[in-house]
Design goal:
Length: 161
């Protein structure tokens, strides 16, 4: 909040408390101007102090909390980075799909079935099941397991079925 805004709020609380109480006491209790003004002044001071305490006691970031937030942000960024490697349409791993198509007999026959992955810190293990035509033209189901880095690059093909 800006300083001017805080000053306006505090001043308003003071004036409203003072004038409001003075008018209320004069109308209801038929008090003298001095008594109602004094009580109004006390209420105004109380409102002033209450607003000051409210503004000053605003939540300040705790360094430990800020560190946790930074760690949480890092974890969220990591999850997002991993998530971007996979197609939102069918869940296939983009780089692994490109690799599979590059070694297939008929890349146009590629049909994604399922992709699963495990996060192992430095790398991901990705398993993709797909259908495609073999050398004889028959459609077969295959599975490829690969080690993939956090940027999505295929590091190693571990198994093919």
């Amino acid at each position: 909040m800006s300083r001017a805004f805080i000053i306006i709020v505090i001043s308003s609380a003071f004036i409203i408390g003072w004038v409001g109480t003075s008018l209320f006491l004069r109308r209801v209790k038929k008090c003298s101007l001095i008594i109602s003004g004094s009580v109004g002044l006390l209420i105004g001071v109380f409102c002033f102090i209450a607003v000051c305490l409210f503004v000053v006691s605003g939540e300040r970031p705790d360094p430990a909390t800020a560190k946790i937030s930074a760690e949480e942000q890092h974890a969220a960024d990591r999850v997002e980075k991993i998530k971007r490697q996979f197609s939102s349409w069918d869940g296939s791993h983009r780089s692994l799909e490109e690799y599979i198509k590059s070694v297939m007999n008929d890349p146009n026959s590629y049909e994604h079935v399922e992709t699963r992955y495990g996060d192992f810190g430095e790398y991901l293990l990705v398993q993709t099941t797909f259908r495609g035509k073999n050398a004889y033209g028959g459609v077969v189901k295959n599975t490829v397991k690969a080690k993939v880095d956090l940027d999505g690059k295929v590091l190693d093909i571990l198994a093919t079925d």
